[in-house]
DNA sequence: TACTCTGCTGACAACTGTTGTCAGTAGAGT
DNA sequence: ACTCTACTGACAACAGTTGTCAGCAGAGTA
Protein backbone atom coordinates (compact mmCIF):
# COMPACT_ATOMS: atom_id res chain seq x y z
CA UNK A 1 0.00 0.00 0.00
CA UNK A 2 1.01 3.56 -0.75
CA UNK A 3 2.12 5.76 2.12
CA UNK A 4 -0.40 8.49 1.36
CA UNK A 5 -3.18 5.93 1.27
CA UNK A 6 -2.02 4.38 4.51
CA UNK A 7 -2.08 7.74 6.26
CA UNK A 8 -5.63 8.21 5.05
CA UNK A 9 -6.62 4.78 6.35
CA UNK A 10 -4.96 5.60 9.62
CA UNK A 11 -7.08 8.70 10.19
CA UNK A 12 -10.16 6.64 9.36
CA UNK A 13 -9.23 3.93 11.84
CA UNK A 14 -8.71 6.56 14.52
CA UNK A 15 -11.80 8.53 13.68
CA UNK A 16 -14.21 5.63 13.76
CA UNK A 17 -13.72 4.81 17.42
CA UNK A 18 -14.03 6.40 20.84
CA UNK A 19 -11.63 4.16 22.75
CA UNK A 20 -7.87 4.28 22.30
CA UNK A 21 -6.08 1.95 19.91
CA UNK A 22 -2.48 0.77 20.22
CA UNK A 23 0.26 1.14 17.67
CA UNK A 24 0.57 -2.66 17.53
CA UNK A 25 -3.08 -3.10 16.54
CA UNK A 26 -2.76 -0.42 13.89
CA UNK A 27 0.40 -2.08 12.60
CA UNK A 28 -1.39 -5.40 12.26
CA UNK A 29 -4.40 -3.87 10.53
CA UNK A 30 -2.26 -2.00 8.05
CA UNK A 31 0.34 -4.73 7.58
CA UNK A 32 3.32 -2.62 8.47
CA UNK A 33 5.74 -2.53 11.40
CA UNK A 34 5.02 -0.61 14.59
CA UNK A 35 7.95 1.64 13.80
CA UNK A 36 6.19 2.72 10.63
CA UNK A 37 3.04 3.46 12.57
CA UNK A 38 4.97 5.72 14.93
CA UNK A 39 6.43 7.52 11.96
CA UNK A 40 3.02 7.83 10.33
CA UNK A 41 1.46 9.22 13.47
CA UNK A 42 4.19 11.81 13.61
CA UNK A 43 3.53 12.74 10.00
CA UNK A 44 -0.18 13.16 10.71
CA UNK A 45 0.50 15.30 13.75
CA UNK A 46 2.83 17.47 11.69
CA UNK A 47 0.03 18.10 9.23
CA UNK A 48 -2.19 19.29 12.04
CA UNK A 49 -4.28 16.25 12.92
CA UNK A 50 -4.84 16.25 16.68
CA UNK A 51 -3.87 12.74 17.69
CA UNK A 52 -3.30 12.06 21.36
CA UNK A 53 -0.87 9.30 22.29
CA UNK A 54 -0.52 8.04 25.85
CA UNK A 55 2.01 5.50 27.03
CA UNK A 56 0.31 2.33 28.22
CA UNK A 57 -2.97 3.28 26.58
CA UNK A 58 -2.71 3.91 22.86
CA UNK A 59 -3.84 6.53 20.38
CA UNK A 60 -7.00 8.58 20.37
CA UNK A 61 -8.15 11.28 18.00
CA UNK A 62 -9.54 14.44 19.54
CA UNK A 63 -13.30 14.52 19.25
CA UNK A 64 -14.95 17.15 17.10
CA UNK A 65 -12.02 16.75 14.79
CA UNK A 66 -12.54 17.63 11.19
CA UNK A 67 -14.24 15.05 9.04
CA UNK A 68 -12.60 13.54 5.98
CA UNK A 69 -12.04 16.04 3.20
CA UNK A 70 -14.88 16.66 0.80
CA UNK A 71 -14.69 17.69 -2.83
CA UNK A 72 -17.44 19.86 -4.25
CA UNK A 73 -17.86 21.19 -7.73
CA UNK A 74 -18.76 24.74 -8.61
CA UNK A 75 -22.52 24.48 -8.53
CA UNK A 76 -22.47 22.60 -5.25
CA UNK A 77 -20.27 25.27 -3.71
CA UNK A 78 -22.70 28.00 -4.77
CA UNK A 79 -25.55 26.07 -3.17
CA UNK A 80 -23.55 25.50 0.02
CA UNK A 81 -22.69 29.18 0.27
CA UNK A 82 -26.30 30.21 -0.14
CA UNK A 83 -27.43 27.58 2.36
CA UNK A 84 -24.83 28.70 4.86
CA UNK A 85 -26.00 32.26 4.53
CA UNK A 86 -29.54 31.12 5.23
CA UNK A 87 -28.40 29.29 8.33
CA UNK A 88 -26.37 32.31 9.36
CA UNK A 89 -29.48 34.44 9.15
CA UNK A 90 -32.20 32.16 10.43
CA UNK A 91 -30.92 29.94 13.16
CA UNK A 92 -29.47 30.21 16.62
CA UNK A 93 -26.08 31.76 17.39
CA UNK A 94 -24.23 28.49 17.63
CA UNK A 95 -25.39 27.15 14.28
CA UNK A 96 -24.95 30.57 12.73
CA UNK A 97 -21.38 30.65 14.01
CA UNK A 98 -20.69 27.24 12.53
CA UNK A 99 -22.16 28.43 9.23
CA UNK A 100 -19.85 31.46 9.28
CA UNK A 101 -16.81 29.30 9.83
CA UNK A 102 -17.89 27.03 6.99
CA UNK A 103 -18.27 30.05 4.72
CA UNK A 104 -14.77 31.20 5.60
CA UNK A 105 -13.32 27.82 4.76
CA UNK A 106 -15.16 27.77 1.46
CA UNK A 107 -14.08 31.31 0.58
CA UNK A 108 -10.48 30.37 1.18
CA UNK A 109 -10.45 27.91 -1.71
CA UNK A 110 -12.65 29.68 -4.24
CA UNK A 111 -11.03 30.39 -7.60
CA UNK A 112 -11.15 34.01 -8.72
CA UNK A 113 -14.17 33.78 -10.95
CA UNK A 114 -16.32 32.13 -8.29
CA UNK A 115 -15.07 34.55 -5.68
CA UNK A 116 -16.36 37.39 -7.79
CA UNK A 117 -19.74 35.68 -8.01
CA UNK A 118 -19.81 35.09 -4.27
CA UNK A 119 -18.82 38.63 -3.41
CA UNK A 120 -21.39 39.96 -5.80
CA UNK A 121 -23.90 38.34 -3.44
CA UNK A 122 -26.62 38.26 -6.03
CA UNK A 123 -28.57 35.99 -3.73
CA UNK A 124 -29.17 37.95 -0.61
CA UNK A 125 -30.44 36.68 2.67
CA UNK A 126 -31.50 39.49 4.97
CA UNK A 127 -31.05 38.73 8.64
CA UNK A 128 -33.02 41.57 10.13
CA UNK A 129 -35.70 39.55 11.83
CA UNK A 130 -33.52 37.41 14.07
CA UNK A 131 -33.57 38.77 17.55
CA UNK A 132 -31.18 37.81 20.22
CA UNK A 133 -33.60 36.35 22.76
CA UNK A 134 -35.23 34.14 20.14
CA UNK A 135 -31.80 32.92 19.11
CA UNK A 136 -30.95 31.89 22.67
CA UNK A 137 -34.24 30.07 23.17
CA UNK A 138 -33.95 28.36 19.83
CA UNK A 139 -30.46 27.17 20.73
CA UNK A 140 -31.58 25.86 24.13
CA UNK A 141 -34.46 24.01 22.53
CA UNK A 142 -32.25 22.54 19.84
CA UNK A 143 -29.79 21.23 22.43
CA UNK A 144 -32.64 19.68 24.41
CA UNK A 145 -33.86 17.92 21.26
CA UNK A 146 -30.39 16.55 20.56
CA UNK A 147 -29.95 15.30 24.13
CA UNK A 148 -33.55 14.05 24.45
CA UNK A 149 -33.90 16.21 27.53
CA UNK A 150 -37.30 17.05 28.96
CA UNK A 151 -37.87 20.83 29.17
CA UNK A 152 -39.99 23.27 31.10
CA UNK A 153 -41.46 25.95 28.87
CA UNK A 154 -43.25 29.21 29.55
CA UNK A 155 -44.90 30.98 26.65
CA UNK A 156 -47.54 33.45 25.53
CA UNK A 157 -50.56 31.85 23.92
CA UNK A 158 -52.09 33.34 20.79
CA UNK A 159 -54.99 34.64 22.90
CA UNK A 160 -52.54 36.63 25.03
CA UNK A 161 -52.72 34.30 28.04
CA UNK A 162 -49.55 33.14 29.75
CA UNK A 163 -49.00 29.40 29.89
CA UNK A 164 -46.44 26.80 30.97
CA UNK A 165 -45.78 23.22 29.95
CA UNK A 166 -43.53 20.26 30.55
CA UNK A 167 -42.49 18.87 27.19
CA UNK A 168 -40.48 16.19 25.45
CA UNK A 169 -39.01 18.22 22.57
CA UNK A 170 -38.94 16.17 19.37
CA UNK A 171 -37.90 18.51 16.59
CA UNK A 172 -37.95 21.96 15.10
CA UNK A 173 -39.49 23.00 11.82
CA UNK A 174 -38.81 26.16 9.88
CA UNK A 175 -42.06 27.16 8.20
CA UNK A 176 -41.01 29.86 5.76
CA UNK A 177 -40.18 32.53 8.28
CA UNK A 178 -40.68 31.04 11.74
CA UNK A 179 -39.19 28.24 13.72
CA UNK A 180 -41.67 25.96 15.42
CA UNK A 181 -41.02 23.41 18.15
CA UNK A 182 -42.75 20.07 17.91
CA UNK A 183 -43.05 18.35 21.24
CA UNK A 184 -44.94 15.80 23.25
CA UNK A 185 -46.98 17.75 25.78
CA UNK A 186 -47.38 16.05 29.16
CA UNK A 187 -50.34 18.21 30.10
CA UNK A 188 -52.34 17.39 26.97
CA UNK A 189 -50.88 13.89 26.52
CA UNK A 190 -50.46 14.63 22.85
CA UNK A 191 -48.27 16.31 20.26
CA UNK A 192 -48.22 20.11 20.29
CA UNK A 193 -46.50 22.81 18.26
CA UNK A 194 -44.99 25.93 19.82
CA UNK A 195 -43.79 28.95 17.88
CA UNK A 196 -40.30 29.83 19.08
CA UNK A 197 -41.04 33.55 18.98
CA UNK A 198 -43.82 33.11 21.55
CA UNK A 199 -41.67 31.22 24.01
CA UNK A 200 -40.66 33.18 27.09
CA UNK A 201 -38.24 30.74 28.62
CA UNK A 202 -37.07 27.20 28.06
CA UNK A 203 -35.31 25.36 30.89
CA UNK A 204 -33.94 21.88 30.37
CA UNK A 205 -34.65 19.53 33.27
CA UNK A 206 -32.58 16.68 34.68
CA UNK A 207 -34.96 14.16 33.20
CA UNK A 208 -34.33 12.43 29.90
CA UNK A 209 -36.99 10.88 27.70
CA UNK A 210 -36.99 8.13 25.12
CA UNK A 211 -38.72 8.23 21.78
CA UNK A 212 -40.90 5.31 20.82
CA UNK A 213 -43.13 4.17 17.97
CA UNK A 214 -46.07 6.18 19.33
CA UNK A 215 -44.03 9.03 20.69
CA UNK A 216 -41.59 10.42 18.11
CA UNK A 217 -41.10 13.00 15.41
CA UNK A 218 -41.57 10.38 12.71
CA UNK A 219 -44.87 9.36 14.23
CA UNK A 220 -45.99 12.97 14.44
CA UNK A 221 -45.09 13.54 10.80
CA UNK A 222 -46.99 10.45 9.75
CA UNK A 223 -50.08 11.93 11.41
CA UNK A 224 -50.13 15.22 9.55
CA UNK A 225 -50.40 15.97 5.87
CA UNK A 226 -48.70 18.97 4.41
CA UNK A 227 -51.06 21.26 2.54
CA UNK A 228 -50.32 21.24 -1.17
CA UNK A 229 -49.85 24.98 -1.25
CA UNK A 230 -49.96 27.78 1.24
CA UNK A 231 -50.22 31.49 0.64
CA UNK A 232 -47.62 33.49 2.48
CA UNK A 233 -48.40 36.85 0.93
CA UNK B 1 9.34 19.74 -2.61
CA UNK B 2 7.37 16.66 -1.75
CA UNK B 3 5.66 14.78 -4.56
CA UNK B 4 2.24 14.93 -2.94
CA UNK B 5 2.59 18.65 -2.45
CA UNK B 6 3.76 19.13 -6.01
CA UNK B 7 0.71 17.30 -7.33
CA UNK B 8 -1.45 19.60 -5.26
CA UNK B 9 0.33 22.67 -6.62
CA UNK B 10 -0.09 21.28 -10.10
CA UNK B 11 -3.86 21.07 -9.81
CA UNK B 12 -3.88 24.62 -8.47
CA UNK B 13 -1.80 25.89 -11.37
CA UNK B 14 -4.14 24.20 -13.81
CA UNK B 15 -7.31 25.24 -12.04
CA UNK B 16 -6.49 28.93 -11.84
CA UNK B 17 -6.42 29.52 -15.60
CA UNK B 18 -8.60 29.23 -18.64
CA UNK B 19 -5.88 29.01 -21.30
CA UNK B 20 -3.67 25.98 -21.78
CA UNK B 21 -0.25 25.74 -20.15
CA UNK B 22 2.70 23.72 -21.47
CA UNK B 23 4.61 21.05 -19.62
CA UNK B 24 7.78 23.15 -19.96
CA UNK B 25 6.20 26.11 -18.14
CA UNK B 26 4.90 23.86 -15.39
CA UNK B 27 8.34 22.28 -15.08
CA UNK B 28 9.95 25.68 -14.65
CA UNK B 29 7.40 26.85 -12.09
CA UNK B 30 7.79 23.73 -10.01
CA UNK B 31 11.53 23.33 -10.48
CA UNK B 32 11.42 19.84 -11.86
CA UNK B 33 12.10 18.30 -15.25
CA UNK B 34 9.48 18.04 -17.98
CA UNK B 35 9.62 14.29 -17.67
CA UNK B 36 8.46 14.57 -14.09
CA UNK B 37 5.60 16.80 -15.13
CA UNK B 38 4.46 14.19 -17.63
CA UNK B 39 4.56 11.56 -14.95
CA UNK B 40 2.71 13.80 -12.50
CA UNK B 41 0.01 14.56 -15.02
CA UNK B 42 -0.43 10.85 -15.57
CA UNK B 43 -0.72 10.32 -11.83
CA UNK B 44 -3.38 13.01 -11.56
CA UNK B 45 -5.33 11.53 -14.44
CA UNK B 46 -5.18 8.13 -12.80
CA UNK B 47 -6.73 9.57 -9.68
CA UNK B 48 -9.61 10.93 -11.72
CA UNK B 49 -8.69 14.55 -12.36
CA UNK B 50 -9.88 15.47 -15.86
CA UNK B 51 -6.81 17.04 -17.45
CA UNK B 52 -6.80 17.47 -21.19
CA UNK B 53 -3.46 17.44 -22.95
CA UNK B 54 -3.08 18.39 -26.60
CA UNK B 55 0.11 18.16 -28.61
CA UNK B 56 1.32 21.60 -29.69
CA UNK B 57 -0.97 23.35 -27.21
CA UNK B 58 -0.48 22.29 -23.60
CA UNK B 59 -2.62 21.20 -20.68
CA UNK B 60 -6.05 22.36 -19.67
CA UNK B 61 -8.27 21.28 -16.82
CA UNK B 62 -11.91 20.59 -17.58
CA UNK B 63 -14.09 23.40 -16.33
CA UNK B 64 -16.56 22.80 -13.52
CA UNK B 65 -14.07 20.42 -12.05
CA UNK B 66 -14.25 19.83 -8.37
CA UNK B 67 -12.61 22.41 -6.17
CA UNK B 68 -9.82 21.60 -3.73
CA UNK B 69 -10.89 19.37 -0.87
CA UNK B 70 -12.41 21.02 2.16
CA UNK B 71 -12.31 19.85 5.76
CA UNK B 72 -15.23 20.65 8.02
CA UNK B 73 -15.74 19.81 11.65
CA UNK B 74 -18.90 18.37 13.13
CA UNK B 75 -20.73 21.57 13.88
CA UNK B 76 -19.95 23.00 10.47
CA UNK B 77 -21.26 19.87 8.81
CA UNK B 78 -24.53 20.13 10.72
CA UNK B 79 -24.88 23.74 9.59
CA UNK B 80 -24.07 22.83 5.99
CA UNK B 81 -26.63 20.03 5.99
CA UNK B 82 -29.33 22.31 7.35
CA UNK B 83 -28.40 25.02 4.86
CA UNK B 84 -28.45 22.57 1.99
CA UNK B 85 -31.91 21.40 3.02
CA UNK B 86 -33.05 25.00 3.01
CA UNK B 87 -31.66 25.53 -0.48
CA UNK B 88 -33.23 22.26 -1.59
CA UNK B 89 -36.58 23.51 -0.41
CA UNK B 90 -36.53 27.17 -1.28
CA UNK B 91 -34.66 27.75 -4.49
CA UNK B 92 -34.85 26.86 -8.13
CA UNK B 93 -34.42 23.35 -9.49
CA UNK B 94 -30.81 23.77 -10.51
CA UNK B 95 -29.61 25.09 -7.17
CA UNK B 96 -31.80 22.55 -5.37
CA UNK B 97 -30.21 19.78 -7.42
CA UNK B 98 -26.74 21.01 -6.56
CA UNK B 99 -27.77 21.11 -2.91
CA UNK B 100 -28.98 17.50 -3.12
CA UNK B 101 -25.69 16.37 -4.59
CA UNK B 102 -23.80 18.21 -1.87
CA UNK B 103 -25.95 16.50 0.77
CA UNK B 104 -25.18 13.10 -0.74
CA UNK B 105 -21.45 13.79 -0.66
CA UNK B 106 -21.68 14.90 2.94
CA UNK B 107 -23.75 11.89 3.98
CA UNK B 108 -21.17 9.60 2.45
CA UNK B 109 -18.51 10.63 4.96
CA UNK B 110 -20.56 11.09 8.12
CA UNK B 111 -19.49 8.98 11.07
CA UNK B 112 -22.22 6.87 12.64
CA UNK B 113 -23.14 9.19 15.48
CA UNK B 114 -23.56 12.18 13.19
CA UNK B 115 -25.46 10.11 10.67
CA UNK B 116 -27.97 9.27 13.38
CA UNK B 117 -28.35 12.95 14.15
CA UNK B 118 -28.80 13.79 10.48
CA UNK B 119 -31.33 11.03 9.90
CA UNK B 120 -33.21 12.07 12.98
CA UNK B 121 -33.81 15.29 11.05
CA UNK B 122 -34.56 17.28 14.14
CA UNK B 123 -34.34 20.40 12.03
CA UNK B 124 -36.97 20.07 9.39
CA UNK B 125 -37.39 22.19 6.35
CA UNK B 126 -40.75 21.70 4.69
CA UNK B 127 -40.72 22.22 0.96
CA UNK B 128 -44.40 22.28 0.28
CA UNK B 129 -44.62 25.80 -1.05
CA UNK B 130 -42.20 25.56 -3.94
CA UNK B 131 -44.06 25.26 -7.15
CA UNK B 132 -42.60 24.23 -10.40
CA UNK B 133 -43.32 27.32 -12.49
CA UNK B 134 -41.85 29.60 -9.84
CA UNK B 135 -38.76 27.45 -9.76
CA UNK B 136 -38.26 27.79 -13.52
CA UNK B 137 -38.71 31.55 -13.45
CA UNK B 138 -36.44 31.91 -10.47
CA UNK B 139 -33.78 29.93 -12.25
CA UNK B 140 -34.07 31.98 -15.44
CA UNK B 141 -33.81 35.19 -13.45
CA UNK B 142 -30.82 33.94 -11.49
CA UNK B 143 -29.00 33.05 -14.70
CA UNK B 144 -29.73 36.46 -16.16
CA UNK B 145 -28.30 38.10 -13.03
CA UNK B 146 -25.14 36.03 -13.28
CA UNK B 147 -24.67 36.84 -16.96
CA UNK B 148 -25.71 40.49 -16.57
CA UNK B 149 -28.31 39.90 -19.26
CA UNK B 150 -31.18 42.30 -19.80
CA UNK B 151 -34.58 40.58 -19.44
CA UNK B 152 -38.15 41.07 -20.56
CA UNK B 153 -40.63 40.42 -17.77
CA UNK B 154 -44.39 40.05 -17.66
CA UNK B 155 -46.11 39.99 -14.30
CA UNK B 156 -49.30 40.54 -12.34
CA UNK B 157 -49.31 43.69 -10.30
CA UNK B 158 -50.67 43.70 -6.76
CA UNK B 159 -53.77 45.51 -7.99
CA UNK B 160 -54.51 42.66 -10.39
CA UNK B 161 -53.38 44.49 -13.52
CA UNK B 162 -51.09 42.85 -16.02
CA UNK B 163 -47.80 44.60 -16.70
CA UNK B 164 -44.55 44.20 -18.60
CA UNK B 165 -41.05 45.61 -18.15
CA UNK B 166 -37.56 45.62 -19.56
CA UNK B 167 -35.13 45.19 -16.69
CA UNK B 168 -31.50 44.94 -15.76
CA UNK B 169 -31.69 42.23 -13.09
CA UNK B 170 -29.29 42.99 -10.23
CA UNK B 171 -29.99 40.45 -7.52
CA UNK B 172 -32.48 38.30 -5.69
CA UNK B 173 -33.44 38.53 -2.05
CA UNK B 174 -35.17 35.90 0.04
CA UNK B 175 -37.39 37.72 2.52
CA UNK B 176 -38.45 35.01 4.93
CA UNK B 177 -40.70 33.09 2.61
CA UNK B 178 -40.54 34.76 -0.81
CA UNK B 179 -37.88 35.44 -3.37
CA UNK B 180 -37.82 38.97 -4.71
CA UNK B 181 -36.01 40.26 -7.77
CA UNK B 182 -34.22 43.59 -7.51
CA UNK B 183 -33.72 45.24 -10.88
CA UNK B 184 -33.16 48.49 -12.67
CA UNK B 185 -36.41 49.29 -14.46
CA UNK B 186 -35.99 51.01 -17.80
CA UNK B 187 -39.59 52.23 -17.83
CA UNK B 188 -39.35 53.96 -14.43
CA UNK B 189 -35.64 54.78 -14.70
CA UNK B 190 -35.18 53.56 -11.15
CA UNK B 191 -34.76 50.48 -8.97
CA UNK B 192 -37.79 48.22 -8.58
CA UNK B 193 -38.57 45.03 -6.72
CA UNK B 194 -40.59 42.19 -8.21
CA UNK B 195 -41.93 39.24 -6.28
CA UNK B 196 -40.97 36.06 -8.12
CA UNK B 197 -44.34 34.45 -7.46
CA UNK B 198 -46.09 37.24 -9.38
CA UNK B 199 -43.91 36.95 -12.45
CA UNK B 200 -45.63 35.35 -15.43
CA UNK B 201 -42.65 35.02 -17.72
CA UNK B 202 -39.03 36.08 -17.86
CA UNK B 203 -37.20 36.09 -21.20
CA UNK B 204 -33.52 36.95 -21.38
CA UNK B 205 -32.63 39.25 -24.29
CA UNK B 206 -29.50 39.43 -26.43
CA UNK B 207 -28.48 42.65 -24.71
CA UNK B 208 -26.03 42.76 -21.85
CA UNK B 209 -25.77 45.54 -19.29
CA UNK B 210 -23.02 46.84 -17.09
CA UNK B 211 -23.31 47.77 -13.47
CA UNK B 212 -21.95 51.11 -12.34
CA UNK B 213 -21.67 53.20 -9.21
CA UNK B 214 -25.21 54.56 -9.64
CA UNK B 215 -26.66 51.41 -11.11
CA UNK B 216 -25.87 48.35 -9.00
CA UNK B 217 -27.09 46.10 -6.23
CA UNK B 218 -24.66 47.70 -3.78
CA UNK B 219 -25.99 51.13 -4.62
CA UNK B 220 -29.56 49.95 -4.19
CA UNK B 221 -28.76 48.44 -0.81
CA UNK B 222 -27.09 51.66 0.30
CA UNK B 223 -30.36 53.47 -0.46
CA UNK B 224 -32.63 51.36 1.71
CA UNK B 225 -32.63 50.74 5.42
CA UNK B 226 -33.80 47.45 6.73
CA UNK B 227 -36.56 47.72 9.33
CA UNK B 228 -35.35 46.68 12.77
CA UNK B 229 -38.08 44.10 13.13
CA UNK B 230 -40.88 42.81 10.99
CA UNK B 231 -43.89 40.77 11.98
CA UNK B 232 -44.31 37.70 9.85
CA UNK B 233 -47.15 36.18 11.83
C1' DT C 1 6.05 19.31 -48.00
C1' DA C 2 9.27 20.41 -44.27
C1' DC C 3 9.55 22.51 -39.89
C1' DT C 4 8.37 23.65 -35.13
C1' DC C 5 6.05 22.98 -30.97
C1' DT C 6 4.49 19.90 -27.72
C1' DG C 7 2.46 15.73 -25.79
C1' DC C 8 3.77 11.21 -24.67
C1' DT C 9 6.53 6.83 -23.73
C1' DG C 10 10.48 3.70 -22.57
C1' DA C 11 14.98 2.71 -20.55
C1' DC C 12 18.34 3.39 -17.17
C1' DA C 13 21.35 5.15 -13.71
C1' DA C 14 21.54 8.33 -9.81
C1' DC C 15 19.23 9.70 -6.13
C1' DT C 16 15.85 10.12 -2.37
C1' DG C 17 12.48 8.48 0.71
C1' DT C 18 10.54 4.54 3.23
C1' DT C 19 10.62 0.52 5.83
C1' DG C 20 11.88 -3.05 9.18
C1' DT C 21 14.97 -4.40 12.75
C1' DC C 22 17.13 -3.62 16.86
C1' DA C 23 18.17 -1.28 20.96
C1' DG C 24 17.03 1.79 24.33
C1' DT C 25 14.31 5.54 27.27
C1' DA C 26 10.14 7.16 29.60
C1' DG C 27 5.54 7.40 31.46
C1' DA C 28 1.20 5.22 33.30
C1' DG C 29 -1.17 1.65 35.64
C1' DT C 30 -1.10 -2.72 38.54
C1' DA D 1 9.05 -4.33 40.50
C1' DC D 2 6.54 -5.45 36.42
C1' DT D 3 3.87 -4.84 32.22
C1' DC D 4 2.21 -2.26 28.57
C1' DT D 5 2.99 1.11 25.37
C1' DA D 6 4.55 5.52 23.44
C1' DC D 7 8.53 7.37 21.49
C1' DT D 8 13.41 8.03 19.48
C1' DG D 9 17.84 7.05 16.99
C1' DA D 10 20.76 4.35 13.87
C1' DC D 11 21.38 1.67 9.92
C1' DA D 12 20.99 -1.40 6.13
C1' DA D 13 17.74 -3.12 2.64
C1' DC D 14 14.44 -1.79 -0.31
C1' DA D 15 11.12 0.91 -3.08
C1' DG D 16 9.89 4.91 -5.33
C1' DT D 17 11.24 9.19 -7.78
C1' DT D 18 13.84 11.91 -10.74
C1' DG D 19 16.65 13.57 -14.67
C1' DT D 20 18.67 12.47 -19.00
C1' DC D 21 18.40 10.81 -23.41
C1' DA D 22 16.24 9.09 -27.37
C1' DG D 23 12.43 8.60 -30.19
C1' DC D 24 7.39 8.65 -31.95
C1' DA D 25 2.99 11.19 -32.97
C1' DG D 26 -0.23 14.88 -33.74
C1' DA D 27 -1.36 19.83 -34.68
C1' DG D 28 -0.34 24.07 -36.65
C1' DT D 29 2.44 26.96 -39.89
C1' DA D 30 5.44 28.57 -43.59
A few lines on this structure:
Two copies of one chain form a homodimer. With 233 residues, chain A is an alpha+beta fold. Chain A has eight helices and eight strands, in the order H-H-H-E-E-H-H-H-E-H-E-E-E-E-E-H.
User: If interface size is counted as residues with C-beta under 8 Å from the partner's C-beta, which chains form the largest one?
Assistant: A-B, 74 and 74 residues
> In sequence order, what are the helices and strands of chain A, one letter per element?
HHHEEHHHEHEEEEEH
Characterize the quaternary organization of these chains.
homodimer
**How do the strands line up in the largest sheet of chain A?**
7-6-5-4-8
Organism (chains A, B): Oceanospirillum sediminis
Protein name (chains A, B): YafY family transcriptional regulator
Domain Helix-turn-helix type (chains A, B): 6-60
InterPro entries (chains A, B): CBASS_pafABC_assoc_protein, HTH_11, WH-like_DNA-bd_sf, WH_DNA-bd_sf, WYL_dom
Amino acid sequence: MNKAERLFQLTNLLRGRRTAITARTLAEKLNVSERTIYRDIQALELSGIPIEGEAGIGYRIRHNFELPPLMFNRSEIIALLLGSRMVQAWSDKELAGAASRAIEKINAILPDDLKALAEQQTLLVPDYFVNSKQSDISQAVRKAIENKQRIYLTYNRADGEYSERILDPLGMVYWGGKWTLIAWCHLRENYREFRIDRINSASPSDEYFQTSEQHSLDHYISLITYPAETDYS
